[in-house]
Amino acid sequence: MKPSVLPSDVDLTAMTPPSSWQLFLSTFCRNKGAVLGFIVLALMVLIAILAPAIAPHDPYELFTGQEQLPPAFLDGGNTMFWLGTDDAGRDTLSRVMYGARYSLFIGLSATTLAMLVGVSLGLSAAFWPKVWGKAVMLVNDILMSYPSLLLAIIIAAILGPSMTNTIITIALVCTPPFIRLTRATAMVELQREYFVASQVMGAGVLRLLFVTILPNCMAPLIVQATMIFSSAILEAGAIGFLGFGVQPPDAEWGAMLGTARQYIQSNVWLAIWPGVAIFLAALSINLTGDGLRDALDPKLKQVT
């Protein structure tokens, strides 16, 4: 009997099942909103990194006699200042660009810190559920019973206004969701056969927690991190607006909104541009998070 031979026109690569990365990428790219959000977010990160090179002016430079100019496309505007100037005569476009550095850095730092603390506490609460786990979840439930923004304002007022204190404040507020999600996911993984096998083989506690269990909990945690990142930027803006965050003359979006508050009737543009920046950052992160959720959830993946 002759061995079967595939026709020469058959593409062997088409018969190969897609890799996990290809499946993730194809699922993510099918979500047009997620792709758009990722592009906007990438542009904002690029602007933040390249701000010293692409900003038209120094964000702290005062242009005497050019205070509160409207945008260049309106009557009374100056082409030197595309988005106008603030109450001290500083270029608004340059300050919005530099503000991306502060706001995105605060959001990313707070989210990273909250994730590190929350994941560690959540894993330990799942591994030792009787005393330590109950104590952790009791404190966690108490913190989650407060509105997050109100709690952030209280903590920021106690710690005092600075960028470091803002990061610590937002990280404390954003930690409870990570604890709850990590604990819930880890408790499911603790019942799996691979975990029992690792215990039988004599794996240590740290290896069981961070090498055996944690990688299998990462998909929902990554999605949660994107949502927390968005919330962190909004909360940083709110804290800065109330005067408890980054202090003027530093160009942070929330602080810019707080300064513009007293000029809202005479020059609304002072508040519009940082407000639009915060809105676009939060929206793009949320859209990207939706795409990550679809791509990382096995139930939502579709093989094309």
TrEMBL record:
Residues 100-289 form the ABC transmembrane type-1 domain. Its main location: membrane. It comes from Psychrobacter glaciei. This is Peptide ABC transporter permease. The lineage of its organism: Bacteria, Pseudomonadati, Pseudomonadota, Gammaproteobacteria, Moraxellales. It is a multi-pass membrane protein. The gene is dppC. Belongs to the binding-protein-dependent transport system permease family. It is found in: Cell membrane. PANTHER family: D,D-DIPEPTIDE TRANSPORT SYSTEM PERMEASE PROTEIN DDPC-RELATED (PTHR43386:SF1), OLIGOPEPTIDE TRANSPORT SYSTEM PERMEASE PROTEIN APPC (PTHR43386). Keywords: Cell membrane, Membrane, Transmembrane, Transmembrane helix, Transport. InterPro entries: BP-dependent_transpt_permease (IPR050366), MetI-like (IPR000515), MetI-like_sf (IPR035906), OppC_N (IPR025966). The chain crosses the membrane at residues 34-55, 104-128, 148-173, 194-215, 221-246, 267-287. Pfam families: BPD_transp_1, OppC_N. It comes from the Bacteria.
